[in-house]
Amino acid sequence: MNQQAVEDARANAQLNGIEDVEFVCGRAEDVLQGQLEEEEESGGPGEVIGVVDPPRAGLHPRVVQCIRRNPHIQKLIYVSCNPEGHQTLGNFVDLCRRPSLRVKGTPFTPVVAVPVDLFPHTPHCELVVLFQRTTTASTHTQSSAPPPGDESLVTESSAPPPGDKDSSAPPPPGDKDSSATPPPGDESSAPPPPPGDKDSSAPPPPGDESSTPPPGDESSAPPPPPGDKD
């Protein structure tokens, strides 16, 4: 840490008549928790607006955890010189993710992001992001209500789309199954024979005697004619 820079900051505050300020020389991950505990013991600082300007490596995970767990920090201004870096994006995710076993405290929500061109004619710029603490009610509402146009799977599976009928629905008119009553003109599999086509058990038609011999064809033992005695 640069102790001379801290001394210059104190001299600058004295020249401008600023007395309600304190400068601490040390790493944020080492001194931030202790400073917040001292403020808590003295009655609490009220609502706090935190300002962080980490190096390109981003904030230390302990600093992010400390900010998340302190309820007095309602707003956080994050100044990043490497907004596309892996560590910076990881800080943003940890600040905004839902509470879990690893991340405690109410999450933040990004409200405003403003790029600042400190290096003209170069592809580099600073990014200033304002995070605001999310209320418990809004967090519960966001987690329980699905976004518009995103119905649950239960809704989609319970109501079939138009034109898609299941097997238990009644068949449409004109489409009868094999167990239904056949329509007129559609006889069963064993219909009676049509007229003119009779089976062997039916009586023979007139003129077609099968057992009675025709006239002039006597049987082998006819009665003797009159006057012919044996």
From TrEMBL:
Catalysed transformations (reactions): uridine(54) in tRNA + S-adenosyl-L-methionine = 5-methyluridine(54) in tRNA + S-adenosyl-L-homocysteine + H(+)
Protein name: tRNA (uracil(54)-C(5))-methyltransferase
UniProt-listed Enzyme Commission number(s): 2.1.1.35
Residues covered by region (Disordered): 138-230
Family label: Belongs to the class I-like SAM-binding methyltransferase superfamily. RNA M5U methyltransferase family.
UniProt source species: Geodia barretti (Barrett's horny sponge)
Stored InterPro entries: SAM-dependent_MTases_sf, TRM2_met, U5_MeTrfase_fam
Biased composition, class Pro residues, residue ranges: 181-195, 202-230
Keywords: Methyltransferase, S-adenosyl-L-methionine, Transferase
Pfam families listed in its UniProt record: tRNA_U5-meth_tr
Active-site residues from the entry: 81
Binding site for S-adenosyl-L-methionine: 53
Cited Gene3D superfamilies: Vaccinia Virus protein VP39
One example of a Gene Ontology biological process annotation: RNA processing
Signal peptide: none
Domain of life: Eukaryota
GO molecular function terms attached to this record: RNA binding; tRNA (uracil(54)-C5)-methyltransferase activity, S-adenosyl methionine-dependent
